[in-house]
Design brief:
The protein is mainly alpha-helical. It contains 10 helices and 2 strands.
Length: 189
């Protein structure tokens, strides 16, 4: 099976605009933001509750701490949230009841969490409906790593942000896009 396609910021904005036209727009945009802008896996996104994202005063945290049972490698990690992710979380939380034990990303109408598999299917279906060929639930995460590399971020920092244990595990996530290749060639002149 080929690797998931990566997308750039312009394509991410196009995808978010598409999500605005669909049911559950706030939920789906938040899930996408956690994947694309924070590099989270479906397993991790489906595991977080409101209490993981909110301070005692109800504002969105700068960092989510994932406990070991919430991650692929059974090792806890921090997820750093940029202002875009925080905005999507804030907008979603405003539309929800204030029970902090409930999942952040919920199946429509039942207030229960997605499984990682059902969330992966949701992502795949949304990408397909938006006409994004080759995209899957891993597109956001791969794009997160590739976009960081394209911006000159150290591979060690990418490793930390993505929660990979080894540098070798990070390498398949990095994609050489046209912009990176063009800049590399231009740097030789």
């Amino acid at each position: 099976m080929p690797q998931a396609r990566t997308i750039d910021d312009a394509q991410a904005k196009t995808f978010i605009a598409f999500l605005n036209t669909r049911r559950n727009a706030l939920r789906n945009k938040c899930a996408f933001a956690l994947s694309y802008y924070a590099g989270m896996r479906c397993l991790e996104i489906s595991a977080i509750n409101l209490s993981d994202c909110l301070t005692d005063k109800g504002s969105v945290r700068d960092t989510i701490y994932l406990k070991a049972h919430m991650t692929k490698g059974s090792k806890g990690r921090e997820v750093f949230l940029n202002k875009t992710v925080k905005l999507h979380i804030h907008n979603l939380v405003k539309s929800m009841s204030k029970d902090v034990s409930q999942p952040l990303i919920q199946v429509m109408g039942v207030r229960k969490a997605f499984t990682s598999n059902s969330l992966a299917i949701l992502f795949s279906n949304l990408y397909k409906d938006a006409g994004f060929v080759g995209c899957s639930s891993h597109t956001g995460r791969r794009s997160f790593c590739s976009n960081l590399a394209s911006n000159g971020t150290s591979i060690r920092v990418i490793q930390k942000l993505s929660g990979h244990r080894s540098l070798a595990s990070v390498m398949p996530y990095l994609d050489a896009n046209e912009h990176m290749v063009r800049n590399a060639v231009e740097s030789l002149s």
